[in-house]
Amino acid sequence: MQKNYIILAHRNPKQLARMIDKLDDGQAYFYIHLDLRVKIDDFQKDINKPNVFFISKREKCFWGDFSIVKATLNLMEAVKNDNRKGFVILMSGQDYPIKNQVEINKFLSVNKDYNFIEIIPIEKKWKKKVVKDKIFHYHILHSSKRSDSNSYAPFFHTNIKQKIRILTHFLKGRLSFTNLKKLFQLPERKPIFPKQYAGSQWCAFNEQTFQKMVFYLRENKENLEDYYKFTSSPDEIFFHSVLMHLQESDVGIKIKPSVTYVNWDRKGCQLPVLFQSTDLQELIQQEQKLFARKFDVEIDSEIFNLLDETNG
Question: What domain of life is recorded for the organism (predicted)?
Answer without folding.
Answer: Bacteria
